[in-house]
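The authors assume throughout that readers already know how a fold can be written as discrete tokens. The format is easy to grasp once an entry is in front of the reader. For illustration, here is how one protein appears when written out as sequence plus structure tokens:
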Amino acid sequence: MAHQEDVPQLDMPERIQREVQQYLGTPPTDFGVAVQFSSNPLEFWQSHRLRWPLLTRVAERFLNVPGSSAEVERIASTAGRILTAQRSTLKPATAGMLIFLSHNHTYLMQHKSV
């Protein structure tokens, strides 16, 4: 087994790309029967946290349900500011993308090297 210092350090985009490739290349039979048929995707990611730590963090961020309606209200407020009468002809996918980018701007700017 290689020691930590023997393994070259990858930058974040390379680490992410490597994890995604490993995940996509893993046959479904390697995930385990109990997890494979689980109705809770968070259980799947929790059981594979050590194998794919970066993908697990992304999954937890997007699969966790907010504990209150405050977050939903903030998103609705953002949508109200973006979807004005002047932008009434936006396609739904474009409107959704603008809302996503606006709502996640701070997070995206903090992680723009990724």
Summary: The radius of gyration is 19 Å. Residues 10-63 form one domain. Confidence is low (pLDDT under 50) at residues 1-5.
